[in-house]
Design brief:
The protein is α+β, with helices and mostly antiparallel strands and about 130 residues long. The chain has four helices and five strands; from the N terminus they run H-E-E-E-H-H-E-H-E. It binds adenosine monophosphate. It holds the Pfam family HIT.
Length: about 130
């Protein structure tokens, strides 16, 4: 099934399973609102994923439906993890893919936090053809 980035939420997705403790992760931080862990296939020296604890498929439904406190808590964790990873002075990139064109693979809203090197172009050129 392709990932649309829109509900319904699939409770069998890999991040839901990590949240339920069924699959291990390399945890970086956790609080009432969010969990941060290292990406299993890092694309930069620092590549951390931050996920909210609620059942949200993508940026769209998270920001439309979550409580303001949960949204604030989530984004505070993103920037706190960036600081804790030592990225504030050198800089970093936060990115969230939504749906097919965004390249979203896991249908649980998440933000990628990249850093530790110059990250280059924000969006690669479209493939030829
Ligand atoms: P996206 O393409 O934005 O949905 O990103 C999904 C990310 O999840 C990819 O960067 C994967 O490497 C990462 N990922 C998939 N499974 C795991 C896992 N079990 N633990 C950590 N990261 C994972």
């Amino acid at each position: 099934m392709s990932v649309t980035g829109l509900p319904p939420y699939d409770d069998a997705n890999i991040f839901a399973r990590i949240l339920r403790g069924e699959i291990p992760c390399k945890k970086v931080a956790e609080d009432a609102h969010a969990l941060a862990f290292h990406d299993i296939h890092p694309q930069a020296p620092v590549h951390v994923l931050v996920i909210p604890k609620g059942r949200w498929v993508s940026a769209a439904d998270f920001h439309a439906g979550a409580e303001a406190e949960a949204i604030a808590g989530f984004w505070r964790m993103v920037t706190a993890v960036a600081k804790e990873q030592g990225l504030e002075a050198s800089g970093y990139r936060i990115l969230s893919n939504m749906g097919q064109d965004g390249g979203q693979e896991v249908p649980h809203f998440h933000v990628h936090l990249f850093g530790g090197r110059r990250l280059g172009r924000m969006v690669p050129p479209a493939p030829a053809g």
